[in-house]
Amino acid sequence: MTNKVIARPLKETAELIELTGGNPFRARALANAARIVERLEIPVSELIASGELANVKGIGAGLVSQIEEIIAYGSFELRDDILGGLPPGLLDVLSVKGLGAKKVRTLWQKLGIQSLEDLEAAAQTGQIATLEGFAEKSQQTILENIAHLRSYAGKRRISDAWMDADQLQQLVTSHPAIESVSFGGDIARLMDVVDEIIVVVKLKAGNTFSPTFIEEVVSSLQLPGVPQTESRVDSIRVTSSFSDGMPYAIVFVSAERFGPVLTSEIGPASFVAQLGLVDAPASLRSEKEVFEWKKLPFIPPELRDLPQCIERAEALSELSLLEFSQLKGVLHNHSTYSDGAHSLTDMSLAVRKAGFGYFGICDHSQSLKIASGMSVATARKQKAEITRLNLGFEKEATARIAAPFKVFFGVESDILSDGSLDYEDEMLAEFDFIVASVHVKFNMSEAEATDRLIKAISNPYTTILGHPTGRLLLKREGYPIDHKAVLEACAHYGVAVELNANPYRLDLDWRWIETAISLGVLVSINPDAHSIDQLDLMKWGALVARKGGLTAPGCLNAMTVEQFEAFLQQRKKPMLVN
Asked: In the sheet that 406-414 helps form, which strands lie side by side, from edge to edge?
C-alpha cells in the first residue's frame, strides 16, 4: 500500500469530522497527518516496522495506531464510526468539485440532501440558490460538476491504473500453465485515462484450451472481485473489477492465435477495424507476424490512436520515440521557498543522485499567495543560494568527486489576468528561465484564454508555457484554448511548451504533440515536483510523450546541460541588445 493510498482515509476522515461538526482540532491533525504521510520519502510500512513513524513530526502514537489499521483493513475505527452515522450518499456529494465539507453540511442540514440525485434535483429546481453562501451561478456549476463526476465513473488516471495492472500481471504470471502475459487496451496504448485494464494471456504449449481448464486456472489465482467467464471464437475472456471499482479483463488465448487476439485487444477499435483481422490465418503467433501478413511495418501500440496511422505506417514505424533515459535535466520544480516539501539543496541533490545533469527550480511567483509565492527579496535570496550550490558542484566536478551538475534559477511566473507576467522586468531579467502558467481566474471563454496565453508567450522573458489548459484529469476540465493558435505563437516567439508530467495533468495533451513537432515547438517534460518523491513523475510524462510521437530532438530537456545553456543564451540575446 503506497503512502498516497494510506493518506486518503486520513484526509477523508478530516473532511467527515468537519462535515459532522466534530472536533476541529482533530480534523486539522488528521488533515496535517495526511499531507505528511503523502510526502514521506520512505514507505510508511517500513517506518512502522522500524518504529520510526511515531518520531515523525506531526505523527503521534495515536495516529500510528490508526495508520496501522488502514494498512491492515483499508480503513480505521474513527472513520468507520463516522461513516456509520452518515447517509452513504453523502460521500458522493463530498466528491463534487467545489463542495467542501462546510457547504455539504449546509446542503444536508438545510435541504436534506443525502445523495448526488438529491443534489441534482435541488439544483434543477432552484433550491440551492436560495441558501446563504450559494447563488444561481454556483447552482449551475454544481450541475456541470455532477455531470463531469459521472463521466469519470469507472475511469482511472494512468498512474493509478498502472498499479492495478501490474498487480494483475504479476498475479496471472505466477500460474505454471501460462507462458506470457501482455498488456492490452488503454494500458498498452499509454492512454492518459484508462477505462479498463486488459491483460492477454498466452498459454504454454501442451495445455488444453478449454473453458473448463481456464476456470480451473482462474479459481487457483484468487483474482479480485467475482470473475465472470465468457467463451469467444478464439479466446476466453474473464472479467471482474478491483475493490476500487476499476474493471479488468483477462483474455486467455492459445499460442497459435495469440497475434491477432493481442492486436485486437490492444485496439483502438477503429485501428483494428481498418487493419482487418477477420480472415487472419490460423497461426500468427505474434503482433510482428500480424503486421507482416498485412504487409505493413510494425506500428507501436502507443501510436495507434494517431489519425491516419495505417496510412502513415512507414513514417511512424521509423520514429525513434523518446526514451526516459534520454532526458538529461529536470525542469519546473518547487522547494520550501514556495509550497514545496523539501529544501532547494535536498531537491538538487536528489536530482543529481538520480543521474540527471541539471535541475531547474521554479518556485511560485509573488502573486500566488496561497502557494507562498516568492517576494522579490525571497527570489534574490534563492538566487544567492543557487550560486553557492553551483560553486560547490563545480568544485566537486573539478576534483572528480561527482559528475558535472548545475542548478538553474527559474520561476513559475503566474500569468496574470491580463496576460502579463508576475514581477517587473528588472526581476524577470534575473532568472535563467521562466515557466509561465495560469493558476487563477479559470472561467474564460476560448478567445479570452487564448489571448491571455498568447500575450504571455509574446513576453520576451517567457521560456516555457506551463500546463497550457490547467486541466486536472478526472477532476477538472481545463479552460478552453485554441491549441493551434497557442502553439503557433510558441513557434513564432521561440517558446517551448510544457508537457506537465504529473498524472493529474499530462498537459499539453498528447493529441497536440504532433502539431507542436510540425511547428518546431520544443516540448519540455516537467514533473512540477513539490517533493523529492514527485521527481519520479517524469516517467509518466515520458510515456505519454511517446504516444504523441515525440522524439529526443523535439524535447527541450533531452538537451545536454551545454545545449540547454546555449538555448537560454540564444533566447536572452534580443533582450541584451535592447
From this structure: 329-333, 358-364, 406-414, 433-437, 464-465, 496-500, 523-526
DSSP string of 476-521, one letter each residue: BPPPP--HHHHHHHHHHHT-EEEEE-STTT-BS-GGGHHHHHHHT-
Q: Between 3.20.20.140, 3.30.450.20, 3.40.50.2300, 1.10.1740.10, what CATH number should domain 324-577 receive?
A: 3.20.20.140
> Please, are residues 359 and 333 in contact by the beta-carbon 8 Å criterion?
yes
Helix (H, G, I), strand (E, B) or coil at 238: strand
**Gyration radius from the chain CA atoms:** 26
CATH 1.10.150.110 range(s) for the chain read: 3-151
What are the tens digits of pLDDT across the range 72-131?
878 888 887 887 777 777 888 988 888 888 899 999 989 989 888 899 999 999 999 999
Contact 467, 474 (CB under 8 A): no
The CATH homologous superfamily for domain 156-317 is Beta Polymerase, domain 2 (3.30.460.10)
Between 208 and 393, whose confidence is greater?
Answer: 393
Residue ranges, CATH 3.30.460.10, the chain = 156-317
Give the pairing type, strands 523-526 and 358-364.
Answer: unpaired
Q: How far is CA 213 from CA 59, 147, 202, 203, 218, in A?
A: 51, 43, 14, 11, 9
d(CA 427, CA 458): 18
322-354: per-residue pLDDT in tens? Answer: 999 999 999 999 999 998 889 999 999 999 999
Taking the CA atoms of 22, 26, 29 and 33 in sequence, report the sign of the dihedral they define.
negative
CA distances from 279 to 184, 250, 253, 267, 290 (A): 21, 24, 17, 17, 11
φ, ψ at 384 (rounded to 5°):
-65, -40
pLDDT tens across 223-280, in order? 888 899 999 888 999 999 987 778 999 999 988 889 999 999 999 999 999 999 988 9
346: left (phi over 0), alpha (psi -120 to 50) or beta: alpha
362, 412 contact by CB (below 8 A): yes
| Residue range 245-259, pLDDT digits in tens | 789 999 999 888 899
Determine the topology of domain 3-151 in CATH: DNA polymerase; domain 1 (1.10.150)
Which residues lie below 8 Å from residue 421, measured CB to CB, with a gap of 6+?
A: 365, 413, 414, 415, 428, 434, 436, 456, 459, 461, 462
DSSP secondary structure letter of residue 373: P
* CATH 3.20.20.140 residue window(s) in the chain: 324-577
Cα first-last separation, the chain: 56
- d(C-alpha 359, C-alpha 351), whole Å: 7
**Cα-flanking dihedrals φ and ψ of residue 66, to 5°?**
-70, -40
C-alpha cell at 466: 506551463
Looking up cell 483477462, which residue turns up?
250
